[in-house]
Amino acid sequence: MISSPSHSSSPTHSARLKSTAPLPPTELQQAVDWAIVSRRSIRAFLPTPVSPEEVHAILDLARYAASGMNTQPWRVHVLTGAAKERLTAVIAAVDNDDDVTATLVEPYHYYPLEWLPPYVDRRRKVGWDLYGLLGIAKGDKARMHAQHGRNYRFFDAPVGLIFTVNRVLQAGSLMDYGMFLQSLMVAARARGLDTCPQVAFTKFHQVIHAELGIPDTEMVVCGMSLGHADPACIENTLVTERESVGSFTTYHE
């Protein structure tokens, strides 16, 4: 278990939230907008370290995410160094064994059991756009497997995060969790860092539980890579298409 960094006493975020905004309105809007719009799923990271203090600061902001009745359902496991390498090695060993992976069961259904348009079309497009950038041809199962396996190395990011939730909580807490994860990723962007949220880890929840000593009362929600994007890697040029506001919004007057 990795201990959190020690911190000297300082004004709480609650106190700071009551103070004047740190930037003029237009600059503040532009800064927040930039942090949201520039967030992308990064799939190749530099080895540049991220300090424990930076990780703590990001989590310290993300904890202000909204949650129903202030339940705050999130629990976070931060992995760096040898701890991260041990987990990635154990998962890789399982991932490369077809007989074992065939027996794995997801802890919850993240994706639909039946894919329908337009969701299946969007899923296929982002997959083939990524493989196209990497030069992976359709049917090249070996390279697809190798690329997917990079998930379990946290795409070489210096920090890996595993998120869990108590099993007694219901679907509403997963909605709350989404707001927490988005807050974390936006806070990372404000610090010049990048992330990749990864549901790929859930299939290996039993391995993760055993390696990190997570009690059975907790369920793995997802993982996340955190670090500095490698600008030289072509996969990081992928920008997914987004629907216009008009395509998903109905105004009632």
UniProtKB/TrEMBL annotation:
Keyword list, A-Z: Flavoprotein, FMN, Oxidoreductase
UniProt entry tagged with the keyword Oxidoreductase: yes
Domain Nitroreductase: 36-228
Domain of life: Bacteria
Positions of the UniProt region annotated as Disordered: 1-22
Matches recorded under Pfam families: Nitroreductase (PF00881)
Biased composition range(s): Low complexity: 1-14
Cofactor: FMN
InterPro entries recorded: Nitroreductase, Nitroreductase-like
Family (UniProt): Belongs to the nitroreductase family.
Protein name as catalogued: Nitroreductase
